[in-house]
Amino acid sequence: MRAAIIAVGSEMLGPTRLDTNSLKITAALEDFGIEVVRKTIVGDRLDDLAAEIEFSLSRAGLLITSGGLGPTEDDLTREALIRALGLKSEIDQSIVDHLETRFRARGWSMPEVNKKQATVFPGHETLANERGTAPGFHLNVRGEDIWVFPGVPSEFEWMLATYFVPWLEKTIGGRTRHRRVLKIAGMGESAVEERLAPYYAAHRDELLTILASPGGVELHVTADGPPDSARAMVAEREKELREIFGRRIFGADEDTIESVIGEVLASRGETLSAAESCTGGLFSSRITDVSGSSRYFMGGAICYTGAAKIAMVDVDPEMIRQNGEVSEPVAIAMAEGARRRFNTTYGVGITGIAGPTGGSEAKPVGTVHIAVAGAERHEHRKFFWPGTRAHVKWFSTQSALDLLRRFVIKVDS
How far apart are CA 169 and CA 177, in angstroms? Predict the structure, then answer.
């Protein structure tokens, strides 16, 4: 089976938006051994989109589209399908009623243009969208399968997992590729590569791939073949890699470092608070991105000035005068002050210079001090992150999360 992918939307032809949906489709197809022969982005022009649908289907028997299902005039995927495939369409009143109910629940009246999203294709499957207003479709035209999904990533990913992947399972008869992703924090890609020398000496295959990501380094172990033997091979290699890296591996597959920390804290009945300066609340935001984090995260303080550090988490003014706001003593005092203020098991303190201004020769932009405090001990690390302001903020929170993880599970660096 050969597949083609079309991402619909003029915004992805410019410099501000990336087509991430196609990567999700490609990953799903790869797991089932389906070759992708064409991947395109088409702007919001009816003639162009209809022509691309026809051309893609001439090259592949499976077509997946994302985007262009909204209510506005430039959402043209339905119209392009009608033109390219000769489909009949009609308005489904049950979808109109559903849309009106969704709008009323928000206290709004449904605009008339939203009725466009109730257009369906008789004789073909309409896919309910629990995450948004636009339904998707599974069309079978002259023996060719066309899957049509909305472009909003949260809606698209839910529909891909709910409808498309189970169809692949049934159609192909099971996955032909099995994958395990192991996630490492606190190590650069080159350091990971050095640690892997014994593994490379023992194996001369292509089962392992190293990928750097904003969250750390990922080890992708894949094996193709019958499910039982492929899974066994992946499990064997995972065991070896865990022996090499130990608790440097913080999670696998869909785990994030913040979700793993949350699981540990929740399982122990322990709690967390934070005092942030240069990260401006990003650490607390990442912690609370995890559903159920209210079980263990009690609160955070954004102490962006020296006065705020003094008033909000009781940092000693003399300490700031002697050491400066960006210093080891102040980071530790912030962590301990947050722990006391919110009465939590652990406190995190982050203070630094995110730039691009504000640095000095002694403390250049990118200098960050991070501390974690418990009832009986604390730990501190100093980091230097060259790069943009966003880069400094992100990697400061990543380093704080890793230091917290190690502190909580009592793992040395």
Answer: 12
